[in-house]
Write a structure and sequence with these properties.
Elements lengths: L6 H35 L30 H24 L7 H24 L3 H26 L5 H22 L6 H8 L3 H8 L4 H21 L3 H27 L4 H24 L2 H24 L7 H12 L9 H21 L1 H9 L17 H4 L7 H4 L1 H18 L4 H5 L7 H26 L3 H25 L2 H22 L3 H24 L5 H25 L4 H8 L1 H13 L5 H19 L3 H19 L5 H22 L6 H21 L5 H22 L4 H20 L2 H29 L4 H15 L1 H17 L2
Length: about 800
């Protein structure tokens, strides 16, 4: 049964078959043309070339491929080389052999060569030899330049060179443009015409002795012509050349006008360069309205920058150094009102970017005073309560030598920028309706605007007292108010969900707190006031953040720790006020860990409890370091720290660590006190403590067999063994080391027998150290009697033995560790 396809499918099959037949016919015609060419140019025996490779739906269906045509790259290389050689010959003829011929011969040769060069491309294009025509056109362009040079040397040697060159450039631009339009298949003449057109106005201005403004005008007019060509030319090569020329001439013209505007001696002198800048801005906007989006944005940026420089340059010329910056910033803000103008989305977007660039530049040049004010208080670390400098806020930050009248613009710029960013953050939802065709970025940019507003506002207000030359008290008050305001912004931003703003405000508040604290070290009253207020601020911040949903637990802990750290400064300041020595101030510092211990007991399982206690313990460690200069105060501080640790150990969640810490602190305090009392027989004082402690440990083990041996016996044994070991090492007699060794041996054997880790470890360590002390004199004698090479030899043998049996020693060590771990 024969299958008859539907009409649509059959039509598709017929079309496909016809395409195959057309491709086969084209292949055969190509092969026939090649054979005819071979028969007409070569003997009949010439080997036929391969068949061409068919393409499309018949690829691979018929015969071998035909040899490909010669690559155009080889032809182009040959033509380029030939054109270069002819160009070199023409230059050599003009410059070297010119004097060997008369004026008639010279003119005849150059005229004939130029005329032939101009006419030959037309004939070559008719024969479809476009590459050869392009090469001859390039050679002819060089000949035309040489003709102009020859004419100048022969007929007009006294003519001004710049003016003559400008005239020649204009004539050549017109001739090349006409030639390129006449022979529109040539690609070289029109770009050459565009490049030549860049010179006439500039060279004529040079010949006329024009100043920078005239050069700027000539360049801008040339740029305007380039813009017209770039927008209206049909060929891509001409448009590219015109765009490159536009960027070069327009940029140079605007830079010259900008330089004149910045160096103007007054508003009147700034009017002319301002007019040129405005003209350049108008040209850029006119071109941006018809250009593609990327070029329109670039044109908008150029127009915006030129307009700001033009409008701001006039009033800025009459202001002292530094103060033109706020003027340009205000002009950049006014530029934003152009976003609703019917200029096209790309141009308007470029104007917005221009405004942002000016604002960013103004902020950058205003940051040096901020850096000076922020870093200056660090010098207070080396001069506690050195007094207030006569120069007020400037002297407090060590910046009296700076030119503050010229730098006073900095807070103005920063506050204006902060206000603009704050307004954008506040009314962000209404920006799309206000901005018109400009697309407003998403929420991320809103957060960035808010963060920038906080940072810039903080920086501007921080530098304001020094810029205005206020007193030290005013500077410190501003710093403290900024800290409070920054942390208030943190709480408010977290409540509204602006986490980026909250982080920025937190960083500003922390930096401001550090700066205010350092600044307050200048006077006694300022220290108490500032750090007292900082303690209250950080406590309030901790409470507020703890109640705020979405606040980071780490930030809450950091705020609590900062409150404790600021509180630790107050007792230290009290000691300085009482003119106490450093070691005498140490007991006062213990007020901070005492308060944190009570707070920890009150807070219990709260997340900030442990960080607060750890920070308080750090203050206790600082007290121990401060008391190290006097043994009496060291013993007292260690004992008091032990009491605080023991009080902390009363809480079950802190008992494992705080109990050991309390024991160690009490033992250290006892040893320091014994050493201070000149005790030579510490056992008389330690054994009365050791025996009851061991009895208590035995009772504890009976009541709770799972209790660790370190908890039951560690403290009691250490109280006697460690001081006795220290005394034995300083004792020249043998009685104490012998008794200590026997006692340590008994304790070690008891630990091994009863499987008690504390007894085994303490007894073994003390026994080993005691034995080492007793053997040391003999080891010294033996080492002194042996040759010097014996010690390194023995060390080498030991290392070899350990290395050879390393795995076995490692297994032994693991077994010892496991055995100790099984003990209690």
């Amino acid at each position: 049964m024969e299958h008859v396809p539907p009409p649509a499918e059959e039509l598709a099959l017929l079309d496909s078959e016809l395409v195959r037949l057309d491709a086969r016919r084209a292949q055969l015609l190509t092969r026939r043309a090649w054979l005819v060419q071979v028969l007409s140019t070569a003997p009949p025996a010439a080997a036929p070339g391969p068949w061409p490779e068919p393409r499309g739906p018949v690829a691979g269906a018929f015969g071998p491929p035909v040899a490909p045509a010669p690559a155009r790259g080889v032809q182009n290389v040959l033509l380029v080389l030939g054109g270069l050689l002819l160009t070199v010959a023409a230059v050599a003829f003009t410059l070297v052999s010119w004097g060997d011929m008369g004026i008639g011969g010279r003119s005849a040769v150059l005229t004939a060569l130029t005329a032939a060069g101009l006419g030959a491309p037309a004939l070559l294009l008719r024969r479809k030899l476009s590459s050869t025509a392009e090469a001859l056109a390039a050679l002819t362009s060089v000949l035309m330049v040489l003709d102009a040079y020859a004419l100048y040397v022969a007929a007009m040697p006294g003519t001004d060179g710049a003016g003559y060159t400008g005239t020649v450039a204009a004539v050549l631009a017109v001739l090349w443009a006409a030639y390129g339009l006449l022979l529109d298949r040539l690609r070289l003449p029109l770009p050459l015409a565009v490049s030549a057109a860049q010179l006439p106005l500039v060279l004529w201005t040079w010949a006329a002795g024009g100043g920078p403004l005239w050069f700027s005008g000539a360049l801008l007019v040339t740029a305007a012509l380039d813009g017209v060509v770039a927008l209206r030319a049909g060929r891509a090569s001409v448009r590219v050349m015109a765009c490159v020329a536009l960027c070069a001439t327009g940029g140079a013209g605007l830079l010259l006008a900008l330089g004149e505007s910045l160096t103007a001696s007054g508003p009147a002198d700034a009017m002319a360069p301002g007019a040129l800048l405005l003209a350049g801005a108008a040209l850029a906007v006119a071109g941006a309205r018809r250009a593609a989006v990327p070029f329109a944005v670039a044109g908008g940026v150029t127009a915006g920058l030129a307009a700001v420089a033009a409008v701001g340059g006039v009033p800025a010329a009459g202001l002292p150094d530094g103060w033109p910056v706020p003027v340009y910033l205000l002009c950049a803000g006014l530029l934003l009102f152009a976003v609703r103008a019917p200029l096209g989305a790309g141009a308007v977007r470029g104007l917005g970017w221009a405004s942002g660039l000016v604002a960013a530049g103004a902020v950058l040049v205003s940051l040096p005073p901020v850096t000076v004010v922020a870093v200056g208080p660090v010098a207070r670390l080396g001069g506690l309560w050195s007094g207030v400098a006569r120069d007020g806020a400037r002297g407090a930050v060590g910046a009296t030598d700076l030119p503050w009248p010229e730098m006073a613009y900095a807070p103005v710029v920063l506050l204006i920028a902060a206000a603009a960013c704050g307004a954008a953050f506040r009314w962000w939802e209404g920006l799309p309706r206000w901005a018109g065709p400009v697309a407003v970025p998403g929420p991320a940019w809103r957060g960035a605007a808010g963060s920038a507003a906080v940072a810039l506002g903080w920086a501007g207000l921080m530098v304001l007292p020094a810029a205005l030359g206020l007193s030290f008290a005013a500077a410190l008050a501003v710093q403290l108010v900024l800290v409070v305001a920054a942390f208030g912004v943190v709480v408010g931003a977290l409540r509204s969900g602006a986490r980026g703003v909250a982080w920025t405000a937190g960083a500003a508040g922390t930096g401001g707190a550090v700066g205010a604290g350092l600044l307050a070290l200048a006077t006694e009253a300022a220290t108490y006031t500032a750090f007292g207020l900082l303690v209250a601020v950080f406590v309030a911040l901790t409470v507020a953040l703890d109640r705020q949903e979405g606040a980071s637990a780490g930030v809450v802990r950091a705020s609590a720790c900062a409150a404790v750290a600021c509180a630790a400064v107050l007792p230290a300041a009290l000691g300085a006020s009482l003119e106490l020595a450093v070691y005498e101030t140490a007991p006062l510092l213990l007020a901070v860990p005492a308060v944190t211990v009570l707070l920890g007991a009150r807070l219990k399982g709260h997340p900030v409890a442990l960080p607060v206690e750890v920070t308080g313990a750090a203050a206790g460690a600082a007290a121990v370091v401060a008391a190290a200069g006097d043994a009496r105060f060291l013993a007292l501080v260690l004992a008091l720290c032990g009491v605080l640790a023991a009080g902390t150990a009363l809480r079950p969640e802190r008992r494992p660590f705080a109990g050991y810490l309390a024991t160690g602190l009490f033992v250290l305090a006892a040893w320091v006190r014994l050493s201070l009392s000149g005790v030579s027989a510490p056992e008389a004082y330690t054994l009365p403590v050791t025996v009851p402690a061991l009895v208590v440990g035995v009772l504890r083990r009976r009541r709770d067999p799972s209790a660790s041996s370190w908890t039951a016996y560690g403290a009691g044994l250490s109280v006697t063994l460690v001081p006795s070991l220290a005394a034995a090492w300083a004792d020249p007699h043998w009685t104490r080391p012998l008794l200590l060794g026997v006692a340590a041996l008994v304790i070690t054997l008891a630990g091994a027998r009863l499987r008690l880790q504390a007894l085994l470890v303490l007894g073994g360590v003390v026994l080993g150290l005691d034995a080492l002390h007793e053997l040391t004199p003999y080891v010294v004698q033996v080492v002194g009697a042996l040759p010097r090479w014996v010690a390194p030899a023995l060390a080498g043998v030991l290392l070899l033995a350990v290395g050879a049996t390393y795995e076995k020693r490692l297994r032994d060590a693991r077994r010892v560790r496991e055995a100790l771990g099984r003990m209690r």
